[in-house]
Design a protein that fits this description.
CATH topology: Nuclear Transport Factor 2, Chain: A
Strand order of the largest sheet: 2-1-6-5-4-3
Number of domains: 1
Number of strands: 6
CATH class: Alpha Beta
Distance between the termini: 37 Å
Helix content: 25-40%
Radius of gyration: 15 Å
Structural class: alpha+beta
CATH architecture: Roll
Strand content: 35-45%
């Protein structure tokens, strides 16, 4: 794995674990796309930051206690871009620490001083998974 990309995800994992959604914003390009089973949206980093506090409050309200990358794999697309697939696990207070595992794919651009995420795709329906765990 490219060392810059490895560093990005090591730091991103720590911030996601700490529910520091605003801190995660630095890893995203000024404009990026987020997608999942419910559709896709293009947004700016500023729009992301406006929603960051709401997102952190939501994860706290459902009792998220930790988040960790269990495995990660990078596939180069070109000299400037890579596809990174991360297999995550999160724990929640009300689930007796049962892991909620999920996959996210990221397209990472390596053109500036630090790599940036320009696209991420969640593979599972987060709301449905949380309902199944009794969190919603």
């Amino acid at each position: 794995m490219n060392e810059d990309v490895k560093k990005l995800f090591n730091e991103y994992e720590k911030l996601f674990d700490a529910l520091d959604v605003a801190g995660q914003a630095r890893f995203f390009a000024d404009s990026f796309i987020s997608a999942g089973p419910r559709g896709a949206i293009a947004q700016s980093k500023d729009e992301f930051l406006k929603m960051a506090e709401q997102a952190a409050a939501f994860y706290k309200s459902v009792g998220q206690t930790s988040a960790k990358i269990l495995s990660i794999e990078e596939t180069p697309i070109s000299n400037e871009y890579s596809l990174v697939r991360a297999h995550w696990a999160a724990t929640f207070q009300n689930t007796e620490m049962k892991l909620m595992e999920f996959d996210v794919s990221y397209v990472v651009q390596r053109m500036g001083e630090e790599p940036q995420i320009i696209l991420f795709i969640t593979h599972q329906d987060e709301q449905q998974a949380m309902k199944e765990l009794g969190l919603l």
